[in-house]
Amino acid sequence: PDALDAPLAAARPEVPLLEPLPDEALRAGPGAPGAPADPASIVVSRQSVRLALVAALQHLPPRQRAVLILRDVLGWPAAEVAGLLQMSVIAVNSALRRARDGLRQAGVGEDDVREPADAGTRAIVDKYAAAFENADVAALTRLLAADAVLEMPPTPTWFAGREAVARFFGTRVLGAPGDFALTATGANGQPAFAAYRRGGDGGYHAHAIVVLEVRGAALARIVSFLDPGLFPVFGLPPMTPGRQASTTALKS
Fold first, then answer.
1. Same domain for 206 and 94?
2. CATH number where 16 lies
3. Is the pLDDT of residue 35 over 70?
4. Nearest Cα residue to 56 out of 21, 22, 99
């Protein structure tokens, strides 16, 4: 009856966990298996995959998002998607049509998708890293959109709203400055961090892959994948001896 009294949504069991896709997986060159030989086709392919990933995260409900990524981004057959999501093939095809229609109706195009390298986005992401590493709840709260959402797969509970998200971070996650060290990476075409947590031995141990969605000048969604097993997928070590990110100068 304290932090968890804040508005939160229940589990969403209808959508199985989709793990984050490292941005390196979108950068396969002409020699990579299955990659197109034509350099122009490679560029178009990367842009299309990136658009699908980012647009899906920004505009679609969870089930449609899952189907679109599995079918259009990863190229899975409808039958395999149906098996993974415990749906019928007909339902998968229907969800895919709705997802595509939803993106068209939203008028989503490549010009509408913000690049993680965008200066404004990068500034917000850097400030998030600084606030998190310094356990600065007030600074983190200022970065959140009013309708910000926090998800923590595979934990089914999720938090909605700036106050609820900030309260959870302040009471259940952030302790003392230096408890966490963040290393920048990229996932699903979005800015992301590998979060290392300080252990009793003084070293920093793999904790979570955190994917951020920036909307306008605020953080709209934080998805923290609480799975240290993802670190090798991103080419990251399971442990680091000291603080990684030099973000103190970014505080304002």
1. no
2. 1.10.10.10
3. no
4. 99
| Residue appearing with tokens 């490679």 | 42
What is the pLDDT confidence band of residue 9, given thresholds at 50, 70 and 90? very low
2: left (phi over 0), alpha (psi -120 to 50) or beta: alpha
DSSP-derived secondary structure for 100-153: HHHHHHTT--GGGSPPTTSHHHHHHHHHHHHHHHTT-HHHHHHHEEEEEEEEET
Enter the tokens of residue 70: 């599995």
Listed residue (135, 167, 119) closest to 248, CA to CA: 135
Residue 244 sits in which domain range? Answer: 119-250
* Gap between the Cα atoms of 139 and 132, Å rounded: 9
State the CB neighbour count (10 A cutoff) for residue 186. Answer: 20
Among 112, 141, 176, where does a domain finish? Answer: 112
Query: Which residues have C-beta within 8 Å of that of residue 191, sequence separation ≥ 6?
Result: 116, 121, 122, 125, 184, 211, 212, 214
Last residue of a domain, one of 46, 79, 112: 112
User: What's the predicted TM-score (pTM) here?
Assistant: 0.64
